[in-house]
């Protein structure tokens, strides 16, 4: 290969790399640069649904309700109260999600992870606020998994679906 061809190849490669880098920086800026400077790509996950229909008075292993169930269900089909989903195990631990429903809408979501290693704790602490925000926005368990936290997302959404099943009228 001639020197001229080598130089042209190097210049072309550098140009492609710069364009890709600028495109990535543009995409990151549009997504709202977070402190870790990583792009939050999400993948679709279908939440697991409970095969049984637990009532508000079920045991802790299949979900509990800690608020009054005397409220009427709204048009969304959710009964007001605080509902705790069944614990959902994943590869590195267990998630339990509690929801608060007021006026037939999910007003609060709290996820609690019991993980077996510190790396899982880091992943869970990053994924939980994203999942909570998405659930509050969607008002359902039909949300995407957090990239890099697929196992945690699936367990979180499974426990969430259990709580939603209990809150359904």
TrEMBL record:
<feature type="domain" description="FMN-binding">
    <location>
        <begin position="91"/>
        <end position="167"/>
    </location>
</feature>
<feature type="compositionally biased region" description="Low complexity">
    <location>
        <begin position="37"/>
        <end position="82"/>
    </location>
</feature>
<dbReference type="Pfam" id="PF04205">
    <property type="entry name" value="FMN_bind"/>
</dbReference>
<dbReference type="InterPro" id="IPR007329">
    <property type="entry name" value="FMN-bd"/>
</dbReference>
<feature type="region of interest" description="Disordered">
    <location>
        <begin position="34"/>
        <end position="90"/>
    </location>
</feature>
<feature type="compositionally biased region" description="Polar residues">
    <location>
        <begin position="109"/>
        <end position="125"/>
    </location>
</feature>
<protein>
    <submittedName>
        <fullName>Uncharacterized protein with FMN-binding domain</fullName>
    </submittedName>
</protein>
<feature type="region of interest" description="Disordered">
    <location>
        <begin position="106"/>
        <end position="126"/>
    </location>
</feature>
């Amino acid at each position: 290969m001639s020197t001229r061809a080598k130089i042209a190849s190097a210049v072309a490669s550098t140009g492609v790399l710069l364009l890709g880098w600028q495109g990535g920086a543009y995409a990151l800026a549009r997504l709202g640069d977070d402190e870790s400077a990583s792009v939050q790509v999400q993948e679709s996950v279908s939440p697991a649904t409970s095969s049984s229909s637990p009532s508000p008075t079920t045991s802790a292993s299949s979900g509990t309700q800690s608020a009054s169930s005397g409220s009427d269900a709204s048009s969304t089909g959710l009964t007001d109260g605080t509902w705790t989903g069944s614990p959902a195990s994943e590869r590195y631990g267990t998630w339990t999600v509690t929801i608060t429903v007021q006026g037939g809408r999910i007003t609060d979501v709290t996820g609690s992870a019991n993980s077996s290693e510190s790396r899982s704790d880091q992943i869970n602490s990053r994924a939980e606020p994203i999942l909570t925000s998405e659930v509050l926005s969607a008002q359902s368990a039909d949300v995407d998994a957090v990239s890099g936290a697929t196992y945690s997302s699936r367990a979180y959404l499974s426990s969430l679906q259990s709580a939603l099943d209990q809150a359904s009228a």
